[in-house]
Design brief:
about 525 residues; alpha+beta; 4 domains; 24 strands
Length: about 525
């Protein structure tokens, strides 16, 4: 048996000489002489004689002379002791070799009948024993099994990396043609062709039959079965660092996003790689082996539960994907591959709701930093909440803004009169500024904004004549007065501590929310 190992060529000569090859066993020595002569023609780096016996000094002398005659410098004998040590490390091999002998012994002793468990531990032992016997069915393949009622599932897994080479298994899956089966067949073809992640479950109405060829115990035709197919390969450790770089036609970088590898697989047509950003699979890339076949990708960008900063990054990623830029993927610091699209390829339009999510995240992100209160984007919100978030963001940017729905302000008269109070109750418009601390609840979170000033230059008091008469007659104490800006307008607001230039006139900044700018003023 010729073996290449670490750049060396080794030849193992296996002889079933249980009682050695002493001088009187001339036929056995002639066999060894013939084997050494054939091996010498290959000029091996080492020749190894394997026998299930303890070699004697005379047998060692015979091999030493024989190898010297054929110019084989390195040689050794693997005997019974070393074989026993190897076998102790590989119980599956021992079980495979002895299974027929054990089966015959069990039949002779009447132990082939099933045990009747009496305790839960008995069931565990039965299952463990069944698993051990199942592992002994083949030296290269392992059988895992599951039970659900009267349904049994089996999974064939390799015991070592060369199982498919030394003892190949081939599976022919024949499916019934039906256009309604397209999603299943497409997912199956992607898995087989590109090694995509996950399992594909094919129900019985799709599968016509399955033919398995390989080891005798496995080869069979199966009908009326459901098939679940998965590819168990992951040559890259999960969460390996990756980077997506988007490049335009002039070679400029138009975006770069750090990610983690969640899956890497290969199939008959190429390979696939799944990348995640912030813990969720976002982009799946497929690279065909055929350079004339187009590359492909799919994306699944979800905003549910995302923090505002994460949402902004995902919006930018989606736009880069839709723009049709070339994609360069680096994995663990090395360039893995480049996905290039055909010139003039159509650009996918952006859904309208994406820009709304972007604007909401742009408002919430600085607001949360200002308040040091952090929470993900809400799934739903009212028009009032949306306008209030924009209002608060503009406030903390030092802007003067219309306060949503702030059309009145109520205060209580003390009963004391003054020229200023009488002027307020005269019915003539006047200017007023009111300063207080603003705490507000947004999406169930309490936000402390800070000191806020409300003002308007044209304010009147409701029922000003009635209030003025009561004040002059000494009955004004405790009466409530309501201030309202003229023409149904709202109070303006700003944060005095954030004004860029206190000496500059206050200019109202629009909310910038389209039609909502004309509402609630």
């Amino acid at each position: 048996m010729l073996v290449h190992e670490n750049g060396l060529m080794l030849i193992y000569q296996l002889k079933c000489f249980t009682d050695g090859f002493s001088t009187e066993r001339r036929s056995r020595r002639r066999q060894i002489e013939k084997s050494v002569k054939v091996a010498a023609a290959h000029a091996p780096d080492e020749w190894i004689l394997v026998i299930p016996a303890r070699a004697t000094p005379g047998e060692y002398a015979f091999i030493e002379r024989l190898t010297a005659e054929h110019y084989i410098k390195n040689w050794r004998i693997v005997g019974r002791v070393e074989l026993d040590n190897w076998l102790a490390l590989m119980p599956d091999v021992e079980a495979y070799i002895t299974r027929d002998l054990l089966r015959e012994a069990a039949r002779d002793l009447g132990m082939h009948q099933k045990m009747i468990p009496e305790r839960f531990e008995d069931i565990t032992e039965l299952v463990r024993g069944a698993a051990k016997r199942a592992d002994s069915i083949d030296n290269d393949w392992r059988v895992d099994f599951t039970r659900d009622g009267n349904s049994y599932g089996y999974r064939i897994r390799p015991k070592h990396s060369h199982a498919q080479q030394v003892n190949p298994i081939k599976i022919s899956l024949h499916m019934r043609p039906d256009r309604h089966h397209a999603p299943w067949t497409s997912a199956f073809e992607d898995m087989i062709g590109f090694g995509t992640a996950g399992n594909v479950a094919l129900p019985t109405d799709i599968v016509d039959h399955v033919f398995v060829s390989g080891p005798a115990w496995l080869s069979a035709r199966h009908e009326g079965v459901a098939v679940e197919v998965g590819i168990d390969q992951q040559p890259l450790p999960p969460n390996t660092h990756a980077r997506l770089r988007f490049i335009d036609h002039s070679g400029r970088t138009r975006g770069s996003f750090d990610a983690q590898v969640q899956h890497f697989g290969a199939g008959s047509s190429g390979c696939s790689i799944d990348l995640s950003i912030h813990g969720t699979t976002i982009v799946s890339l497929r690279s065909p082996d055929d350079p004339n076949s187009p590359a492909g990708y799919s994306s699944n960008i979800e905003f549910h539960g995302r923090m505002p900063s994460e949402a902004l990054q995902l919006v930018a990623l989606g736009r880069a994907l839709r723009a049709g830029y070339d994609i360069e993927l680096s994995v663990a610091g090395d360039v893995f591959g480049t996905w290039t699209w055909e010139a003039g390829a159509s650009v996918e339009p952006e859904p309208e709701w994406v820009s709304k999510i972007e604007m909401l995240a742009q408002d919430l992100e600085p607001l949360q930093r200002h308040c040091q209160v952090y929470f993900p984007l809400p799934d739903t919100f009212s028009t009032r909440e949306r306008v209030m978030i924009r209002f608060l963001r503009l406030l903390i940017e030092g802007k003067c803004v219309i306060r949503p729905a702030a059309r009145s302000y109520t205060f209580t008269l003390t009963g004391d009169s003054s020229p200023e109070v009488e002027h307020m109750l005269s019915g003539q418009p006047f200017a007023i500024r009111l300063t207080s601390e603003l705490d507000i609840e947004i999406f169930g979170h309490n936000l402390t904004i800070g000191e806020l000033t409300h003002f308007h230059t044209q304010v009147v008091v409701d029922d000003h004549r009635k209030l003025l008469r009561a004040l002059k007659s000494g009955r004004g104490r405790g009466m409530r007065a309501t201030l309202r800006p003229i023409n149904g307008e709202s109070f303006r607001a700003y944060m005095p501590g954030l004004q860029i230039d206190p000496d500059m006139p206050l200019t109202v900044t629009p909310w910038g929310l389209g039609s909502l700018d004309e509402r609630d003023r």
